[in-house]
C-alpha cells in the first residue's frame, strides 16, 4: 500500500485508540529487543545490528518509497548524522544486552531521554525527578547491594552510552522530521546505517548471516523494533499530545522487564524492581508535562 494513500484501517485505529497504538509500539520495541538478545550468541553485536537495520531498511523503503532526489546538502548532512546516531545507539544497546538483563539495560538507557527532557524544561521539579531516577538506576544496577568486584561496569557503561545516543537520536529525529515527509527520513537513515554497518557485520559474522534461522530472527527484530513501532507511533502522534505520549513511553523499562521475563526468563530482584519503578515515576513526571505549557 502506498504511503500516499495510507492504510484506512490503521488510520481509523489511530483516531479511535491512539493510546493503544503507542502501548503496542512500546511492547513491540521491547519484545524486539528480547528477540535480539537471542540472536547475539549466533552472529554477535555487529551482525545483529546489521540484520536489524538492513532488513528494516528494506521493509521501510518498500512500504514508504522515500523521495531521494531534490534533497539539499543540509538535508543529507542531517539525515546522515541521524543515521550514524541511530546505528551507534543500537551497537551500544545490543552490546549491553550481552552483559545485562534487558530490563536493567533499558532502564539505564532511559536516563538519556529523561535527562534531555529535564535539561530542556529547566524546571526545579524535573531536576528532583532526575535525582529520583538516578537513585532508581543505582538500585537496578545493584551498585549499592553487590560487591564491586562482581559488578559489570562495562555493561552499565554501554547501556549509559546507548542512553546518550538515544538523547542525540531524539534531537536529530526532530531535525530530520522537519526536512523529510512522514517516514522518508527514517527510511533513508536506515539505508545509510545499513551501508555503514555492512563491512562490520560481514567481518564479524560472515556466512552465519545467511543462515535461515538467523535471517528469520533478524526479520522479526526488524519488524518488532523498527517497522511496526515507527509506523504505529507516527499514526498515534497525530492524535496524542506530547505529554501523553511521553507518559506512555515512560513505560518502556517495565515493558522491557516483561519481555525479559517472558522471552528470556530473566527475573529482577525486589530492589531492582523498586529502582525501575523510581525511573518510570520520574519519567512520567518529566515527560508527562511536555507540551502542557506549565
TrEMBL record:
What keywords sit in the KW lines? Membrane, Transmembrane, Transmembrane helix
**Transmembrane region(s):** 20-39, 45-64, 76-96, 102-120, 127-148, 154-174, 186-208, 214-232, 244-263, 269-288
Against InterPro entries, the record matches this protein to: EamA_dom, EmrE-like
Can you quote a single GO CC term? membrane
Q: Where is the EamA domain?
A: 155-287
What's this protein's family per the entry? Belongs to the EamA transporter family.
* Protein name per the record: EamA family transporter
Amino acid at each position: 500500500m502506498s504511503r500516499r494513500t495510507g492504510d484506512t484501517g490503521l488510520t481509523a485505529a489511530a483516531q479511535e485508540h491512539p493510546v493503544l497504538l503507542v502501548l503496542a509500539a512500546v511492547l513491540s520495541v521491547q519484545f524486539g529487543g528480547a528477540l535480539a538478545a537471542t540472536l547475539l550468541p549466533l552472529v554477535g553485536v555487529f551482525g545483529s545490528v546489521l540484520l536489524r537495520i538492513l532488513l528494516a531498511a528494506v521493509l521501510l523503503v518498500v512500504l514508504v518509497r522515500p523521495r531521494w532526489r531534490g534533497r539539499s546538502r543540509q538535508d543529507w548532512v542531517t539525515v546522515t548524522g541521524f543515521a550514524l546516531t541511530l546505528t551507534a545507539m543500537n551497537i551500544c544497546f545490543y552490546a549491553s544486552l550481552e552483559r545485562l538483563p534487558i530490563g536493567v539495560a533499558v532502564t539505564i538507557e532511559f536516563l538519556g531521554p529523561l535527562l534531555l527532557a529535564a535539561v530542556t524544561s529547566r524546571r526545579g521539579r524535573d531536576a528532583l525527578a532526575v535525582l529520583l531516577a538516578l537513585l532508581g538506576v543505582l538500585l537496578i544496577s545493584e551498585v549499592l547491594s553487590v560487591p564491586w568486584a562482581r559488578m559489570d561496569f562495562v555493561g552499565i557503561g554501554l547501556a549509559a552510552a546507548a542512553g546518550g545516543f538515544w538523547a542525540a537520536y531524539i534531537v536529530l529525529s526532530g531535525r530530520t522530521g522537519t526536512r523529510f515527509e512522514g517516514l522518508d527520513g527514517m527510511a533513508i537513515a536506515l539505508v545509510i546505517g545499513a551501508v555503514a554497518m555492512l563491512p562490520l557485520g560481514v567481518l564479524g559474522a560472515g556466512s552465519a548471516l545467511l543462515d535461515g534461522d538467523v535471517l528469520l530472527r533478524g526479520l522479526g527484530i526488524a519488524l518488532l523494533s523498527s517497522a511496526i513501532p515507527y509506523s504505529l507511533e507516527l499514526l498515534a502522534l497525530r492524535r496524542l499530545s506530547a505529554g501523553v505520549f511521553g507518559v506512555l513511553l515512560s513505560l518502556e523499562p517495565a515493558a522491557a522487564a516483561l519481555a525479559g521475563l517472558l522471552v528470556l526468563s530473566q527475573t529482577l530482584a525486589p530492589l531492582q524492581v523498586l529502582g525501575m519503578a523510581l525511573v518510570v515515576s520520574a519519567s512520567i513526571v518529566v515527560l508527562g508535562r511536555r507540551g502542557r505549557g506549565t
